[in-house]
Amino acid sequence: xILELRDKMAAFAATAEAxxxxxxxxxxxxxxxxxxxxxxxxxxxKQAGDAVAKVTGQPDSxxxxxxxLRASLKELGR
Length: 78
Known about the structure:
Elements: H1 2-17, H2 19-40, H3 45-56, H4 65-76
């Protein structure tokens, strides 16, 4: 049992030591999730990626999936 948990604890320790790296990985996952949702709704990958990049590139950009999706939909509606 300890051998099985060793790998998980090492990964946990790595994220605990570098929260900015974990935040970047998490943000990348959020961007990918929103882009996939927009593609699923019918926009091209380029259109979706451009809209998400514009929304997340602002200084006060949202960080939650639902907020990014909503802002991206508004951007695509322009």
